[in-house]
Amino acid sequence: MVEAALPKVKIYATGGTIAGASNSNSSTDTTQYSAGQVTVEQLLQAVPPLKDIAMIESEQFTNTGSNQLNTSILLSLTKKIQGDLDSDSNLSGVIVTMGTDTLEEAAFLFDSIIDDERPIVVTGAMRPTTSLSADGSFNLFQAVSASISSSSRNRGTLIVLNDRIGSAYYTFKSNTRTLDTFQALEAGFLGTFAGIEPIYYYQPARATGRQLYPVSSLPANNNLPSVSILYAALDQGPAQLDFAASQGVQGVVIAGEGDGEADRTWLDSMTKLMNRGVPVITASRSPSGTVQAGNNFGNGTTSIPSKTLNPQKAKILLQLQLAKAPLDMQAVKDVFKTA
């Protein structure tokens, strides 16, 4: 009797805490450590049972903390993943290991570009490899398990950590330290795990507002348009907005108060930018809820509301849209209308 071949997956390692190691040789140190110290080969060696569930290819794409990544590096990785999926029909899915600081933005970028029914699973860790109860190895095991499951298909990019499966569109990092940092407060998780078996709560679906930007629509040099995120707070006037405008940014996202608002003194500068063809997106610094059009902010004249997207994801969406259609303000409005 011929045994069935194991499913094939590919892991792209980029560093992060999942590849981190303590600087003090302490097993209880979860703060003073360096990210990106362990190679993907070492990560795989620490999880021997993986060889029993999948044939694994791996690539050390980079090895650094995710706060050292940028959209140019991530676009290069995205194109690499899309190319590998297109050229290898035997791949069941792919996994990206990375730091959690910018994981939600990277996953959102992958989800907005990669066009394939096979799962792209992004995972990381909150404790370095040298820590007691380090979470990276089991997160990696569950990520591989999710990537080979037929139930994971047609769901877009998935975020897998701490026994949870989340949509890249809605899931975000909510805590600087805890293992359950990744949450989807409004939309909820897509599923969980029983051991290593993924269990989904719903049939496959994509986020309502998800936009697709094929690789062909992206810059060959991987440089996306410049978009700044500005933070609104008490006593915060429009000086930072005026400075951003003077630096030639191509778009602005405001992490606003409540429903995407700021001091009324911002309105004149916002309107001038919009009239110049520079989109201003009003998002919220609050961790959940939607941002809608108001009388002063988000009315289409002073700014465009981000709807369900937080500032960092709104920035990625705006960059992708500006790369596709640089001078089309109406297209930006249309894209965010369903975000």
UniProtKB/TrEMBL annotation:
| Record InterPro entries | AsnASE_II, Asp/glu_Ase-like_sf, Asparaginase/glutaminase-like, Asparaginase/glutaminase_AS1, Asparaginase_C, L-asparaginase_C, L-asparaginase_N, L-asparaginase_N_sf
User: Which keywords annotate this record?
Assistant: Hydrolase
All copies of the L-asparaginase N-terminal domain together span: 8-204
Question: Organism's domain of life?
Answer: Eukaryota
Q: Which GO terms describe its biological process?
A: L-asparagine catabolic process
Quickly give the catalysed reaction: L-asparagine + H2O = L-aspartate + NH4(+)
Q: Which GO terms describe its molecular function?
A: asparaginase activity
Q: Which Gene3D superfamilies match?
A: 3.40.50.40, L-asparaginase, N-terminal domain
Query: What SUPFAM superfamilies does the record tag this protein with?
Result: Glutaminase/Asparaginase (SSF53774)
Q: Name one Pfam family in it.
A: Asparaginase
- Annotated Asparaginase/glutaminase C-terminal domain ranges read 227-336
Question: Per the UniProt record, which EC number(s) apply here?
Answer: 3.5.1.1
Active-site residue numbers? 17 (o-isoaspartyl threonine intermediate), 17
Binding-site residues for substrate, renumbered to this chain: 66, 100-101
**If you read the UniProt record, what top EC class would you report for this enzyme, in one word?**
hydrolase
UniProt record similarity statement: Belongs to the asparaginase 1 family.
Q: Which NCBIfam families match?
A: asnASE_II (TIGR00520)
Name listed for the protein in its UniProt record: asparaginase
Q: Which organism is it from?
A: Ceraceosorus guamensis
The organism's lineage is: Eukaryota, Fungi, Dikarya, Basidiomycota, Ustilaginomycotina
